[in-house]
Amino acid sequence: MGEQKFSIIEVKHRDELEQLGTKEKFWFEDDNKQKTLFKIGRPNTGENWSEVVTSNLCELLDIPHAKYEFATWKGKDGTITQGFVPKNHRLIHGNELLGKISNKLELLGGITDEKYPEEQKYGVRQHTLSIVLATVRLFPKLAPIGYNSDLSALEIFAGYLMLDCWIGNQDRHHENWGFVVSPDKKIYLAPTFDHASGLGCRVSDYERAKRLKTKDSSFSVEHFVSKAKTPFYKTKDSTKPMTSIDVFKETYKYSAYWLERLEKIDINDVVKIFSRVPKHLISEEAINFALKMLEINRLNMLKIKEELNK
C-alpha cells in the first residue's frame, strides 16, 4: 500500500491581499477562524510542492517553521499556511530591522554612514552574513514563539541556513527572515518560512533528466548544487554573493546540533514525503532530482564537518 497523499484544501473566499512579494497571494480565515495565507506558485514550476515538502523536512529536523499545505482556489493550485504571528504581535522582516539599526551597523562589523537599502530585495551587498548573524545575536534567548528549546536564537537561525544548504534554497533574502515583536516589546526569532525556490523546483524535467544521466561533470547534479548562490555577501565590497555551502562553512559552529539531526534522518522517511505529493503536482524526474540534491548536499555538509573537526 502506498503512502497516503497530502490533502488539497479548497479555499472558498479571500479577505485581504498580501502586498509583500511577487506572487499572487491573499489572507483569509479558515474554518477554525485562523488567519491563513493562500499563495499561488509560479506556472510551470514546482514551487507549491517545494513549500509542502520542505515543511515536512522541517518536521523531520524539528526546525521551527511555517507549516504549508496544498490548496486550490478557483481552479488555481497553491499552498496555504497559517499565520505564525499571534494577535497584537508584529512581524519585522530583516530589511526593516537592518534599516532601523543602520546607525549601529559599524559596531556589527558593517557599514558606517550608509542607510541600509530596505526597499532593494536582491543584490544587497550590505546584507552580509556577519551583519545578519550579529543582528540575530542581539536577541540571544528569544526562540520562536511556542518552540521549546535550550538553543540560542543564533543556533536556531543557523539551523535555517543549514536547511537552505540541504534543500538548495537560494532565497533567504532580507524579507525571508525576521523577528516577531510582542505587545510588551519582547522580540522573538520568527520560524523559517518561504521555501518555494528549493529542491530544484524551477528546473525543467528535460534538464533534470539530462543532469541525472550525464557523464559531463560540469553538467552534473553535483555541479548544479555547488553553484547554489545565497542572498548573503561576505563583505559589502564583495562582487558575488556567497554560495550556500560557504554559508554553511561559516556557520557550522552554530549548526552542529542540526547537522547531527540531519545525519540521523532515515532516507526512507524523506522518500515517503515525496511519495505523498499528489502525482499530478510532481513528476518522477522532479522527485529523483530533488532526492539527488538532498543526498549530495547532505554528504557535502558532513564532509565539511569532518574537515573542521580534524
- How many individual β-strands? 9
Class from secondary-structure proportions: alpha+beta
> Describe the biggest sheet?
6 strands, mixed
**What is the number of helical segments per DSSP (H or I, 4+ residues)?**
9
Low-confidence stretches: none
Instruction: Give the overall shape, derived from the CA principal axes.
Output: globular
- Intertermini distance: 45 Å
Description:
The chain is built from nine helices and nine strands. The protein is 37% helix and 13% strand. The N and C termini lie far apart (45 Å). A hairpin with a 5-residue loop joins strand 3 and strand 4 (35-39). The protein is globular, with a radius of gyration of 19 Å. The relative contact order is 0.15. The chain is of the alpha+beta class and 310 residues long. Helix 1 (47-61) packs antiparallel against helix 8 (267-275), helix 5 (205-213) packs across helix 9 and helix 7 (244-264) packs across helix 9 (284-308). Strands 1-5-6-4-3-2 form a six-stranded mixed beta sheet, covered by helices on one side. Strands 7-8-9 form a three-stranded antiparallel beta sheet.
What's the structural blueprint in terms of helices and strands?
Blueprint: E1 8-10, E2 16-17, E3 25-29, E4 35-39, H1 47-61, E5 68-73, E6 76-82, E7 90-93, H2 94-100, H3 129-137, H4 153-167, E8 178-181, E9 187-189, H5 205-213, H6 221-226, H7 244-264, H8 267-275, H9 284-308
Parallel strand pairs: 1-5
Antiparallel strand pairs: 2-3, 3-4, 4-6, 5-6, 7-8, 8-9
Helix pairs in contact: 1-8, 4-7, 5-9, 7-9
